[in-house]
Design a protein that fits this description.
The protein is built from 15 helices and 22 strands. Its cofactor is Mg(2+).
């Protein structure tokens, strides 16, 4: 293939159109390169339900085995199930998925032993360089024995581990609608929730990598509409929506209203702090709500603010020994899950919290949702740096605000804040704003957009 690896090797993973941008021959080289860069003598692979996933995963395993690496294949799994296997078996891992991307895409999420992340600065750049070289020259001849390929089931172990981290033994009966979006939630949810007092109403549980019902991307409100309608129609206690590889979980309340991932972060943070004796570090990215650090402090914890992106969250969790971390995008990270993200564990916390009291979910989460947010607003701009500079100039010198550039530009006042970040892959600026009331948020949002879009 004359594939341009710069187009498919992203900041944290490999992702592109199959077979136009990459195929099984390239996957085999990635397997060999991953084996060399990690120096592992064994690794674990898993894959989602996309039509191209089994072949790509097997090709990767073949590439690693050619150089003496023993490969444990766990087959169909969610991304957090692959992280479980990497952690429990203490092996590097590779998950074949393109998450919420359309059906023609596929990708590889790689990790070192113990689910430690692999990104551009932690091995991915080296892997890319090897694949580029070997594509021209051919991979070197193996020196020793060929590794083995062994099949292993991990779904029951994964589910048992998650249930061991949340006490769900005394919850009241709950009616729960789950929209798996034809993704891997249809594979994991029935096993994880088995035996709980949950009346499960499944939506789109059939594994289908062509996504016939809607995109498996709950971050887009259009993809929550079916779930919201079903929750109302069923009179359910809540609804859960998972993305394609089921590592992210979105929640809607009994009215069918979306619950902010910041509110879920705050709720889970309070519960994790209680589990850890009322102390510990909680990581949150800089565009989660003010509610998150407030709730963390109120419950005895120490909030630590970080840049957006799982590599930054995981690095800070490792550095600080944090017990939990959350992002606005509904990624939730747990120390007891090898610092990896698992939406399923966050969902169990929500079920335990709701089932442990008598009120509706809307009332429960109200205490964690204290401000008015804009949501993320994208603006296409000709020059990201120029528009950011104009925004910085508009607020520099004002006594009532504080500016910081941890990630893009954040402007903070007594009653509001906003952050503007450039996209790494598109000519976009992303605005998030929050205030104590709707009128202030609207005013600040519109002021910032006027500068951005000038």
């Amino acid at each position: 293939m004359a594939a341009d690896l710069s187009q498919i090797v992203k900041a944290y993973d490999v992702r592109g159109v199959v077979p136009d941008q990459w195929d099984e021959s390239l996957a085999e080289l990635f397997g060999a390169a991953f084996a060399q860069v990690t120096g592992a003598d064994a690794l674990v692979t898993g894959h989602d339900m996309r039509p191209s996933s089994p072949g790509l995963a097997r090709a990767f395993a073949r590439g690693a085995a050619r150089y003496g690496v023993d490969v444990t294949e766990i087959g169909l799994c969610s991304t957090d199930q692959l992280y479980y296997a990497s952690g429990a078996l203490n092996l590097p891992g590779a998950m074949f998925t393109a998450s919420h991307n359309p059906a023609r895409y596929n990708g590889i999420k790689m990790c070192r032993a113990g689910a430690a992340p692999v990104g551009q600065d932690t091995g991915l750049a080296e892997i890319r360089a090897l694949v580029e070289r070997w594509r021209e020259t051919g991979a070197p001849e193996p020196a020793g024995r060929e590794g083995t390929l062994t099949r292993r089931e991990t779904l029951q172990e994964y589910a048992a581990h998650l249930r061991s981290l949340v006490d769900v033994t005394s919850i009241r009966p709950l009616k729960v609608v789950v929209d798996a979006g034809n993704g891997m939630g249809g594979h994991t949810v029935p096993t994880v929730l088995a035996g709980l007092p949950v009346d499960l109403v499944p939506m789109y549980f059939e594994l289908d990598g062509t996504f016939p019902n809607h995109e498996a991307n709950p971050l887009d409100p259009a993809n929550l509409v079916d779930l919201q309608q079903r929750v109302r129609a069923e009179g359910a206690d809540l609804g859960l929506a998972f993305d394609g590889d089921a590592d992210r979980c979105f929640v809607v309340d009994e009215r069918g209203e979306p619950v902010s991932p910041s509110a879920i972060t705050a709720l889970v943070a309070a519960r994790e702090l209680a589990r850890h004796g009322g102390q510990g570090v909680i990581i949150h990215n800089l565009i989660t709500s003010w509610s998150v650090p407030e709730v963390v402090r109120e419950n005895g914890g120490t909030p630590v603010r970080t840049r957006v992106g799982h590599s930054f969250i995981k690095a800070e969790m490792a550095r600080t020994g944090a017990i939990f971390g959350g992002e606005h995008s509904a990624h939730y990270y747990f120390k007891d899950f090898w610092n990896a993200d698992t939406g399923m564990l966050a969902a169990l916390h929500v079920l335990a919290a709701l089932g442990g009291q008598d009120g509706p979910l809307s009332a429960l989460v109200a205490q964690y949702d204290r401000y008015v947010g804009s949501g993320e607003i994208n603006s296409t701009v000709a020059d990201q740096h120029a528009r950011l500079a104009a925004l910085r100039a508009a607020y520099t010198g004002r006594d009532d605000v504080r500016l910081d550039e941890l990630d893009g530009l954040t402007v903070t006042a007594a009653d509001w804040w906003f952050n503007v970040r450039p996209s790494n892959t598109e000519p976009l600026l992303r605005l998030n704003a929050e205030a104590r009331d709707e009128a202030t948020m609207t005013k600040i949002r519109d002021e910032a957009l006027a500068v951005i879009r000038a």
